């Protein structure tokens, strides 16, 4: 597969992933808004913080290292997919082990919620752990689909799974509200079950078909998906071990505030529920735009660049297109992050008031969301820079970076604990900002050194045009003044005026982007928008 084909497929994957994450977040957004009217904030806090943390920790520690290693191009194009599949099946027993260990911690070492307010906590822990193990049963199929750029199967599988989960949750919340945590446990089991089932059905139909033969798919029969000899590729296994050691640290950085809330009890279950709702609302754009781009273009960089080799020892055309793509991605996420930071400040109070009423818009809610709007800018830069760095690093460099991640993890936990006692929920966001800034600094230094001896300077993508900066500053002032005058106690007419002013300012910002960021606009048209990409090709 040529570099251009890899870029095209990665761009297609990113586009579909963005659409999928939009739908994913919209469903979750509407589900939370609906359930807030029927269940207590304490129940929301236990589900969205403690039980979700159990599930994400189990799944992440069981599969993340395997995913990164098996999707890497280090082992070459002649890899044995039978050996890769054997390695991937190890995620299931590893998941069972984590389920037992984490389940014991969640049941016997953590504070148990009041059974009158949050009923059925013990069975819910078991069921959420079971859902994580159930999802791992489809891991070999997921990696096969990602590695061969089967973009539609992921979209269909996760869409159907989310629709099923939301349907079950809504029905049970309305007709069986006394079930408590059983409601959300059932929804979670249905979600992971549908996810695995969709992948199984797809590969049963695909393997041995004419389409598989046309694509020269390396596996022919459904039995090829089961463990067999030869056992494993030890090069990939060693790389997996390196990523596995790193996964502990990355999980702490990713879910750090939830660990602090869960293990140190710095917030009540009710406050955890409110913080998590605000956190999810603030991270919607980050998750449904930045995360799919990071996941998809990690595959692109990992396939185009040779891991652990410097620029001079690689094909110039591959390095050139990787540098160009990295520059455009940095510019893209920077522009999006700046827009969110500017408009998020002036519209946080209104968004929370519309979403959850006075329960969210009063108190610390708007302040939390404003801080998160600024944090999104750091999330944007970190996602793209780290996806390049992890794709280019050698195994030895990954091992060394583990020490950096260890230091960041320890500092993050300490900062979270101290800043939360000082500033409440805002302290979590401030700690995230400081640690994210350190991670970005490390990645930028690596990228600078990587391209230092070449003609390519992809870090120029972090310099927006002067006109765009001026328009953003003016928009920030205008929308902040509009909020002070029109929002949010004067009724719907004043709210609509405030929204209209923001819309006009946003149009001027987008116009500035079209006029000054022509390379970025061309990249988005030809690589991220399917309609334009088809014309281009």
TrEMBL record:
<feature type="transmembrane region" description="Helical">
    <location>
        <begin position="467"/>
        <end position="486"/>
    </location>
</feature>
<keyword id="KW-0472">Membrane</keyword>
<feature type="transmembrane region" description="Helical">
    <location>
        <begin position="182"/>
        <end position="204"/>
    </location>
</feature>
<comment type="similarity">
    <text>Belongs to the RFT1 family.</text>
</comment>
<comment type="function">
    <text>Intramembrane glycolipid transporter that operates in the biosynthetic pathway of dolichol-linked oligosaccharides, the glycan precursors employed in protein asparagine (N)-glycosylation. The sequential addition of sugars to dolichol pyrophosphate produces dolichol-linked oligosaccharides containing fourteen sugars, including two GlcNAcs, nine mannoses and three glucoses. Once assembled, the oligosaccharide is transferred from the lipid to nascent proteins by oligosaccharyltransferases.</text>
</comment>
<feature type="transmembrane region" description="Helical">
    <location>
        <begin position="367"/>
        <end position="391"/>
    </location>
</feature>
<dbReference type="InterPro" id="IPR007594">
    <property type="entry name" value="RFT1"/>
</dbReference>
<dbReference type="GO" id="GO:0034203">
    <property type="term" value="P:glycolipid translocation"/>
</dbReference>
<protein>
    <recommendedName>
        <fullName>Protein RFT1 homolog</fullName>
    </recommendedName>
</protein>
<feature type="transmembrane region" description="Helical">
    <location>
        <begin position="328"/>
        <end position="347"/>
    </location>
</feature>
<dbReference type="GO" id="GO:0005789">
    <property type="term" value="C:endoplasmic reticulum membrane"/>
</dbReference>
<feature type="transmembrane region" description="Helical">
    <location>
        <begin position="492"/>
        <end position="515"/>
    </location>
</feature>
<keyword id="KW-0812">Transmembrane</keyword>
<feature type="transmembrane region" description="Helical">
    <location>
        <begin position="155"/>
        <end position="176"/>
    </location>
</feature>
<feature type="transmembrane region" description="Helical">
    <location>
        <begin position="87"/>
        <end position="109"/>
    </location>
</feature>
<feature type="transmembrane region" description="Helical">
    <location>
        <begin position="12"/>
        <end position="31"/>
    </location>
</feature>
<feature type="transmembrane region" description="Helical">
    <location>
        <begin position="429"/>
        <end position="447"/>
    </location>
</feature>
<dbReference type="Pfam" id="PF04506">
    <property type="entry name" value="Rft-1"/>
</dbReference>
<dbReference type="GO" id="GO:0006488">
    <property type="term" value="P:dolichol-linked oligosaccharide biosynthetic process"/>
</dbReference>
<comment type="pathway">
    <text>Protein modification; protein glycosylation.</text>
</comment>
<keyword id="KW-0256">Endoplasmic reticulum</keyword>
<feature type="transmembrane region" description="Helical">
    <location>
        <begin position="43"/>
        <end position="66"/>
    </location>
</feature>
<keyword id="KW-1133">Transmembrane helix</keyword>
<feature type="transmembrane region" description="Helical">
    <location>
        <begin position="403"/>
        <end position="423"/>
    </location>
</feature>
<feature type="transmembrane region" description="Helical">
    <location>
        <begin position="121"/>
        <end position="143"/>
    </location>
</feature>
């Amino acid at each position: 597969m040529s570099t251009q084909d890899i870029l095209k497929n990665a761009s297609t994957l990113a586009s579909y992933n963005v659409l999928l994450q939009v739908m994913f977040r919209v469903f979750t957004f509407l589900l939370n808004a609906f359930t807030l009217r029927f269940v207590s904030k304490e129940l929301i806090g236990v589900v969205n913080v403690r039980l979700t943390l159990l599930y994400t920790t189990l799944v992440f520690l069981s599969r993340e290292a395997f995913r990164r290693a098996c999707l890497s191009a280090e082992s070459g194009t002649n890899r044995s997919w039978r050996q890769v599949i054997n390695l991937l099946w190890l995620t299931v027993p590893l998941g069972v082990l984590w389920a037992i260990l984490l389940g014991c911690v969640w049941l016997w070492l953590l504070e148990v919620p009041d059974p009158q307010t949050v009923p059925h906590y013990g069975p819910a822990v078991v069921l959420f752990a079971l859902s994580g193990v159930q999802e791992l049963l489809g891991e070999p199929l997921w990696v096969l689909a990602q590695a061969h750029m089967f973009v539609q199967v992921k979209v269909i599988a996760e869409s159907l799974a989310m629709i099923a989960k939301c349907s079950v949750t809504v029905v049970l919340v309305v007709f069986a509200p006394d079930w408590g945590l059983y409601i959300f446990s059932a929804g979670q089991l249905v979600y992971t079950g549908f996810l695995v089932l969709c992948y199984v059905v797809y590969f049963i139909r695909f393997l041995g078909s004419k389409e598989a033969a046309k694509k020269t798919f390396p596996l022919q029969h459904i039995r090829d998906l089961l463990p067999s000899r030869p056992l494993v590729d030890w090069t990939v296994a060693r790389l997996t071990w390196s990523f596995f050691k790193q996964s502990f640290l990355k999980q702490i950085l990713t879910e750090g505030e939830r660990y602090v809330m869960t293990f140190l009890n710095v917030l009540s279950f009710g406050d955890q529920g409110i913080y998590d709702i605000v956190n999810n609302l603030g991270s919607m754009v980050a998750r449904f735009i930045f995360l799919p781009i990071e996941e998809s273009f990690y595959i692109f960089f990992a396939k185009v660049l040779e891991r652990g080799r410097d620029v001079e020892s690689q094909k110039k055309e591959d390095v050139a297109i990787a540098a160009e793509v990295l520059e455009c991605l940095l510019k893209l996420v920077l522009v999006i992050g700046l827009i969110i930071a500017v408009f998020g400040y002036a519209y946080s109070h209104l968004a929370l008031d519309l979403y959850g009423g006075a329960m969210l818009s009063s108190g610390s809610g708007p302040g939390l969301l404003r801080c998160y709007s600024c944090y999104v800018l750091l999330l944007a830069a970190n996602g793209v820079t780290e996806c390049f760095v992890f794709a280019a690093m050698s195994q030895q460099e990954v091992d060394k970076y583990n020490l950096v991640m260890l230091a960041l993890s320890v500092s993050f936990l300490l900062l979270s604990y101290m800043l939360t006692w000082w500033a409440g929920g805002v302290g979590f966001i401030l700690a995230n900002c400081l640690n994210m800034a350190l991670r970005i600094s490390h990645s930028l230094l690596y990228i600078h050194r990587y391209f230092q001896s070449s003609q390519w300077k992809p870090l120029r993508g972090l310099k927006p045009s002067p006109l765009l900066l001026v328009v953003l500053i003016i928009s920030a002032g205008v929308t902040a003044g509009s909020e002070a005058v029109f929002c949010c106690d004067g009724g719907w007419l004043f709210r609509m005026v405030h929204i209209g002013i923001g819309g006009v300012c946003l149009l001027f910002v987008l116009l500035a982007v079209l006029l000054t960021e022509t390379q970025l606009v061309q990249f988005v048209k030809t690589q991220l928008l399917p309609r334009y990409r088809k014309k281009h090709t």
